[in-house]
Design brief:
Number of helices: 11
Distance between the termini: 74 Å
Helix content: 25-40%
CATH architecture of the largest domain: Orthogonal Bundle
Radius of gyration: 24 Å
Largest sheet: 2 strands, antiparallel
CATH class of the largest domain: Mainly Alpha
Order of helices and strands: HEEHHHHHHHHHH
Shape: globular
């Protein structure tokens, strides 16, 4: 009998350890950023914040290059986007980009060493378009990136492909299944914090423009088309956003009423623009590049990698902890001469 009790205690102890393994040990830091009494407090684990510091360190910037002298388009062939820069500025940016995106491969990641001018490598075609995307983002989306701006490093962090990208999920039921079409749910994924929410909440909102809402604005039956299923997609997106920024829901919402804009912090408006910015980047820049990428760089449904909040933020509420890296690269904060996106309308 005594041995049985010992085994039960061991099992209970093991169960308690498993339960507590999902918790974070104290001490924790709390920061009040809303009106007192509204419960708008952010909880941070200082050990997690410290662990993220290295990934958000800004690399050394090369000394500024002279702006005078011959233009890049006069010195080099097939310069379609940055031709208006001086050759010194152009070379400085190319060296910087190589360190940001391909520190191991260097220039040959995008260029044929026998002929730098040709576009035989798909990576060069993509890189050119990504420069245009970065310039457009810094010029036309200051409603989200403000004056801080972004560079290639903001997303890539020394990787050929940003560590945080997303693909469409194949939610087609696999054969005859008594569960039927699960609509991408009940298959816990990191994209939604390992919950049972739909694991691709990005296609409806970051490619499409479905309403981000958990309830209808009118009573049934007069036009209320917002279902519980749509609410679950919304919760999935919100889970992703909170995780990507390393914050609680209260970073953007006043918990008195999540749907109302009254009494909300300014971060909610910034996030509103951010959703539309990401949608623009995916539709204008990423999706049209699908045929440019080789098959091994595409997702399970044959689609191209796309951006979402985590691509830039990577666990902190301001990418690179708010470091103004882009100020050292003014050519990325303006639509340069020769850029095919020069006539993009301000959004």
């Amino acid at each position: 009998m005594r041995s049985i009790m010992i085994k039960i205690l061991h099992l209970a102890s093991l169960g308690l350890l498993l339960l507590l393994s999902g918790c974070e040990r104290p001490p924790m830091d709390s920061i009040q950023h809303g009106y007192r009494g509204t419960g708008m407090v952010e909880i941070y684990n200082p050990r997690i914040v410290e662990a993220k510091a290295e990934n958000n360190a800004v690399p050394f910037a090369l000394p500024p290059a002279p702006t005078d002298g011959p233009r890049a388009s006069q010195v080099y062939k097939n310069v379609q986007v940055l031709g208006g820069l001086s050759s010194a500025q152009f070379t400085r940016l190319m060296v910087s980009m190589a360190s940001w995106v391909a520190p191991n491969e260097g220039c040959v990641y995008c260029h044929n060493p026998a002929n730098f001018a040709e576009d035989s490598k798909y990576t060069k075609v993509v890189a050119r378009r990504m420069i245009q995307m970065t310039q457009n983002l810094n010029v036309n989306w200051t409603s989200h990136v403000a004056n801080t701006g972004v560079t290639c490093y903001t997303c890539h962090r020394g990787n050929n492909i940003p560590q945080q990208v997303w693909f469409k999920r194949d939610v087609t039921p696999a054969g005859a299944n008594f569960i039927g079409d699960k609509a991408g749910q009940n298959e816990p994924a990191l994209s939604v914090g390992l919950s049972s929410l739909p694991n691709d909440p990005f296609t409806p909102f970051l490619l499409g423009a479905q309403d981000i809402r958990v309830g209808g604005v009118t009573a049934l039956p007069n036009g209320n088309k917002h279902s519980i299923k749509q609410a679950e997609w919304t919760y999935g997106l919100m889970t992703h956003m909170a995780t990507s920024l390393g914050v609680n829901c209260t970073y953007c919402h006043n918990t008195r009423t999540f749907s109302s804009w009254e009494g909300n912090p300014p971060q909610r408006a910034t996030a509103w623009y951010g959703i539309r910015m990401v949608r623009d980047l995916n539709l204008t820049y990423m999706e049209p590049l699908q045929s440019t990428f080789p098959a091994h760089r595409l997702g399970e449904t044959g689609d191209v990698a796309k951006v979402y909040c985590a691509t830039c933020h990577q666990g902190v509420y301001k990418p690179l902890n708010g470091a103004q890296m882009a100020k050292d690269y003014p050519e990325l904060k303006a639509i340069t001469a020769g850029n095919l996106d020069a006539k993009v309308a301000k959004r």
